[in-house]
Amino acid sequence: MRNILLILALFAFFATENTFAQGKYFTRDGHVSFFSAAPMENIEAENHKATSVIDTETGRMEFAILIKAFEFEKALMQEHFNENYMESNQYPKATFKGDIQNASDVDWTTDGTYDVTVSGDMTIHGVTKNITTEGTIIVENGAISAKSKFKVAVADYDIEIPTVVVDNIAKEIEVTVDMKYQRLEK
Amino acid sequence: MKKYIKYILLLAVIGISSAYYMYNKPHKNIQKAKADFTLNATDLFTEYEADEETANAKYLDKVVEVEGKIQSIKTEDNGQTSIVLDSGSMMFGVNCQLDTTKVETVNRYKEGDNIKLKGVCTGMLMDVVLVRCVPIES
Predict the structure, then answer these.
(1) What is the CATH number for A57?
(2) Which residue out of A25, A26, A27, A29 would a mutagenesis test of the B interface target, given it has the greatest number of B Cβ atoms within 10 Å?
């Protein structure tokens, strides 16, 4: 009898342990960078203040970044980026809201690297587009991180590049996303 | 004709060097910049929470000096360091990303301490975000 109780207690313990790993994870210090390769010059900028929430139960992912938090090597580039191209006073944020298409392939409780396909709505410069991209989810010692690299076509988001600088800015910008999530305390 | 050539050359030199200077224009020196607004972290957060659009019109791109209690200090693997100031909200606050040259200052502070920081306001996600922050020490 005592053994059964012990087994039941252990079972209950592991059961709660398992459910504990399910739920919402978030970060407010996510890293998003972009790289533009063009004949005249390469441009890159980094943003260390991306916020993101991931719901392991539903496979839902949301990201938001502040355009003005992108930092460039050159002040002039940063100024042009904000004022001429992204119009960040009018559109201060870029967001992505989507779902992991193959969420059932990810075992959130077991260490490993999982390839995922995410699709959803990306909003940049006030324009919303449905996109699908590949990424990886890494589970390590109960911590969750997510990585992705994809291309964004400048013209898709109504960002106009004057012909004078057409050789300075790539038509497709490579975006790199690197998030380390923390469990959201209830 | 000959005497004009040196003036034309001089103009060209001035033109090229000022273009070069513009291209390499330095970032605003936050340490030296005068704060456009000085307020405490709670008030800044409350203003944003009440009306994000109005707050954006007022604070975006401005140098803001905030004072508040340190809710958390976090250093990422890549060396980026942030201090989150208490805003009276349960989870979110004023998230100040330190200027990369000022990262060592965090060693002098701990959670619960009061701190004054000056940085550029970039808007609100869940936290109100200030970047390139420098501590103000008297």
Answers:
(1) 2.40.128.110
(2) A29
Among the partner-chain residues B23, B78, B95, the one whose CB lies closest to the CB of A49 is: B95
β-strands B94-98, B114-124 pairing? unpaired
How far apart (Å, rounded) are the C-alpha atoms in residues A108 and A143?
9
Q: Residue A17 falls within a domain, yes or no? A: no
**Could you count the other beta carbons within 10 Å of the beta carbon of residue B3?**
6
Residue at A16 is within a domain: no
Tokens of B18: 């000022």
Give me the interface pTM, i.e. the ipTM.
0.80
- At B116-134, the pLDDT tens digits run 999 999 999 989 999 999 9
| Count of domains forming chain A | 1
Q: How many CB pairs under 8 A join A and B?
A: 72
Domains of chain B (ranges, CATH numbers)? 37-135 (2.40.50.140)
Write the pLDDT tens digit of every residue in A102-126. Answer: 999 999 999 999 999 999 999 999 9
